[in-house]
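Researcher: Final request for today, and then I'll write up notes for the group meeting. The sequence and the SMILES for zinc ion follow.
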Amino acid sequence: MYNIEIINCLSDNYSYICFNDNEAFVVDPSEYTPIKNFLLEKKLDLKFILNTHHHHDHIGGNRELKKDYDCKIIAPKKDEKNIPDVDIFVEQDNILNILDTSCQVFEVPGHTLGHIAFYFEALDAAFTGDTLFSLGCGRLFEGTPEMMWNSLLKIRSLPENTKIYCGHEYTLSNARFIASVVNNDSIEEKIKILERLRNSNGRSIPTLLSDEMDLNLFLKADNNEVARALGMEHANALDVFTRLRSLKDNF
Ligand SMILES: [Zn+2]
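Model: Predicted protein-zinc ion complex:
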């Protein structure tokens, strides 16, 4: 069984190092130095780099880490032209064996066209990059609202006890957005908890998929209460999702 260490990178990125006694893989190394420092401290050999998408704050450490460890880079097939030095391109439903642990690949376009998520059933963990955030979802830089909604439905179909490891610490501002749409006690309580947490530099990640299904409006665009809160009682889920995303873009 693997430990998962969360590494703070850049201003609000998270990279994730999964490791056993002597081997490791890293998900979305934003930058080289903090990853390298942890690997040295724990005397770990880095075997794989997993990239969810091509943005620089998710691949920035790739090249130097590969140079040091000769590790294999795994990245989306659809990002073939965007991510250099990749050894293994993957797509929907590919099953990888990473340090003797099975990993399922989901294509989750929307934030970018090639975005993927990695699901490790044995770890109860999904690495969702900039697709699903705690209490939010990624901006649509390349894809359509329909792509993103379908991507979120894929993630929503994972077991409820799945721990979600996402690319950024955006949870508090996401919670404030939710409170601007639906005002209820549970989101107000959540904001208080998050404010205390962030005041002491704590992390809100990982989050449980079941908690996200309760509170994250972007996973609830097919919920009547959410539609009603937006004055869209008879709209379909995609229209509700599209409205939510555009409200958040201007929040
Ligand atoms: Zn991104």
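Model: The mean pLDDT is 97. Residues 53, 55, 111, 130 surround zinc ion (CB under 6 Å).
Researcher: Thanks, that's everything.
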